[in-house]
Amino acid sequence: MEKDKVNQPVWFPDWWDCLQREALSPAQREEYRRVLVRYLHYCKVTGQRATVLSARRFVDQWNAEHPLSASELAAMKEALNWFFRTAQRFKPSLRGVPPLVQKDLGKTDWERRLIQRVRTLHYQWRTEQTYRGWA
Question: CA 107 to CA 84: how far, in whole Å?
């Protein structure tokens, strides 16, 4: 796999909903859920993003701490492969792309002050959208 693809982070907050709709047996769905919850927890604890490379590290570390049989290892890899393949299919659309900063400075004084503060603190665009949506 290309280095760019291995290090490309995915953002897939709806993975659980997609997994629920997947044509899997209840036991297989539960196994995928367990593996993915462990993996995402691993990412959080280690401060890593969800990438193919971090998934490989996770599998290696998990297998070192909890030796897996060949079938268990294959099932774990299958769940992680599902996660990354499905995340690629459900990439966020350009609908949520922020407008040019120079053009979107707010309409009222309070909104302009809010935008200035949020951007000074280098908050994410999604955070700014949320704060402005509360108004």
Answer: 40
